Amino acid sequence: MESTRPASPEQKSAWRFVRATRAHVVVDAAAYFELMQQAMLRARQRIHMIGWDFDTRVRLGPGRRFYNLPDREVQPARLGAFVVWLVKRTKGLQVRVLKWNFGALKFIFRGSMILDLIRWFLKRGIDFKFDSAHPLGCSHHQKIIVIDDNFAVCGGIDMTSDRWDTPEHLEGDPRRRHPYGTRLYGPWHDLSMLVEGEAAGALAELGRERWVAAGGAALIPCAPQADSAWPPNLKAEFTDVEIGIARTRSAWGRLDEVREVEALFIEHIRRAKRFIYAESQYFASRAVAEAIAAKVAEPDPPEIVLINPATAEGWLEQTAMDGARVRLSHAIAQRDHKQRFRIFIPRNAAGTAIYVHAKTMIVDDEILRVGSANMNNRSMGLDSECDLFIDAARPGNSHAAEPIRRLRIQLLAEHTGMLREEVEADLDRYGSMIDLIENAPRQGKRLDPFVLRPLTDAEKAVADNALLDPERPEELFEPFSARRGLFRRGGLLRRPG
User: Fold this and answer.
1) Fewer CB atoms < 10 Å away: N or C end of the chain?
2) Residue 194's CB: how many other CB atoms inside 10 A?
């Protein structure tokens, strides 16, 4: 069922509030890939894939390989061949794939992916497009898959290479391998949320609008059907729950600017009374940092635990994000009179840093947020983003509080290497996530405190002016201005010495 209920006029931090018959948070891509394979097997009308990146070479789950081609009754394991097989098997099935246009350059280095795309192009029922419906310097960063308009997933996990991993994050896991290669990649942590019902219908509407904006022909909504693509053996954490949807979008053509994600971050941080638990690929957002700084300056502030990777991935991201994280941490420390704000780096049992790609936040075991938006400036106003959230304080949602609490315990257990029962007991003993983390065993998986490194003057200048991480497209063309940057005129934060 499609949603027709807009957010209330006073609500600027959400696009829609819609019901989900079922919802579930999937932790790490090993489970996600296999669950999505199961869901896509149940598709009857349309699979709409919207993402920052797709790699047709990735293995989703069980299935045949190239060396057992004659067994046509068994699904292929690779995404590219699997999609073709699905369309051949299911009469009338449509597959629509929308991918950020900049990533087209990667195809040159992905060998067989070009052959997969040719097969997609030649196969009736499959349509693949690049999304360039954004200003120069912006990206299409949403990670959404919708099946039959009544099942959907939204979160941080891209269906691409170098994402697969288990919650164990084993050192040198041979399954964590580049497609058709021998080189292994490091441990990776991520989350996405599955939804069913009206919430999926709203994401379907969002996807159809984006498809048209990117130059595709209008898509007719799927016909109502009794069953959904929900994986048959997956027990949902949430049932009959209201889901909020928040977006980011730069103004482009006839599309207006949308900054719901930014407003939602500020709203949720302001609401915190006891704690905030968050995971993010970056910590570079001025707006988020100002909200945190205001919160920790209160007489009795909540504790705020942020899980980050040790360093950003790639030279450009490191230059833009790592320096900003140091500068913002120093600025927040000036107001953090009770030292309630901490950043931690997860490591596996061998001591290797786990790359955190998740974008999630839990507030007081009352609010759960999962999406594509990072805590950086681009996600606030430059790139296209989509976040889902569950607010147990809203009418009819009180039953969601306990599953939210269990998810927080599950994530803390994964990162500390402790059993869930041990995490619960220590939370009761200490009454603090920070104390739990600092007193957790050190011989296995662990969370290490983030150590602020000294920055060069050049690094400070890049970070302070947000040269590579602007909040709006126009800031790309005004790199030095008192009206922009982390410590802009009129802002809350003061430039560290």
Assistant:
1) C
2) 30
66 and 205 housed in the same domain? yes
CATH number of the structural domain spanning residue 112: 3.30.870.10
Q: Report whether 190 contacts 164 (CB < 8 A).
A: no
Q: Higher-confidence residue: 219 or 482?
A: 219
Q: Mapping DSSP to helix (H, G, I), strand (E, B) and coil, where does residue 397 land?
A: coil
Give the helix/strand (H/E) hosting 404: helix 401-416
Give the number of other Cβ atoms within 10 Å of residue 394's Cβ. Answer: 15
Q: Which helix (H) or strand (E) holds 37?
A: helix 29-41
CA-based end-to-end distance of the chain: 55
Query: Is the domain of 30 the same as that of 86?
Result: yes
Whether the per-residue pLDDT at 256 is higher than 60: the answer is yes
Looking at the structure, do residues 254 and 300 belong to the same domain, yes or no?
A: yes
d(CA 424, CA 444): 18
Nearest residue to 293 via CA among 114, 432, 492: 492
DSSP summary character for residue 58? -
Residue 13 domain flag: no
Does 493 map to a domain?
A: no
pLDDT recorded at residue 109: 59
State pLDDT tens for residues 33-80: 999 999 999 999 999 999 999 999 999 999 987 655 655 788 999 999
> How many C-beta atoms surround the C-beta of residue 166 within 10 A?
17
**Rounded distance, CA 42 to CA 311, Å?**
39
List the domain range (segments joined by +) for residue 266: 242-477
Alpha helix ranges (H) inside 125-274: 198-213, 260-271
pTM of the model: 0.94
| Distant-in-sequence, close-in-space partners of 427: CB < 8 Å, separation ≥ 6 | 409, 433, 436
